[in-house]
Amino acid sequence: MKADNTDTQILTHLQNDGRLSNVELAEQIHLSASPCLRRVKQLESSGVIKGYKASLDRKKVGLSMTVFIEVRLKSHTSEASEAFEESVANLPNVISAYLVSGFADYRLEVVAKDLADYEGILKAMQNLPYVKDIHSNFAIRAIKSDAPLPL
Fold first, then answer.
1. Where do the TM regions start and end (predicted)?
2. Tally of structural domains, the chain
């Protein structure tokens, strides 16, 4: 879908505050409510807007550790990749996972309560199918996270 300037404004405002009412959004982008709602519905149905969710403070919900884990697989077959990816998708502490180029095959972002919690997560990861090596990098402090996409 090709977004025009109005669609870009809608997306920018909704990324910053997904709880805006249609009337508030329409006022902010200088459009009447009906065409604004029609555009939002079109952005949703086309999949540009995937959904709406609350952004939580990790520390306040007891997940103060963020760890970036690089994983190398023993095998690079489609069977190995599919088995690993399916297993990772089912781990609740893995909040993002990427197939990457370079030294590692995958880069995972994991949240944990503390080191003991992370140790349990690490042991579970070591038992995932086809895992050869795991390297962990502990985040000391978030500089920028959950930023809106630059439109």
1. none
2. 2
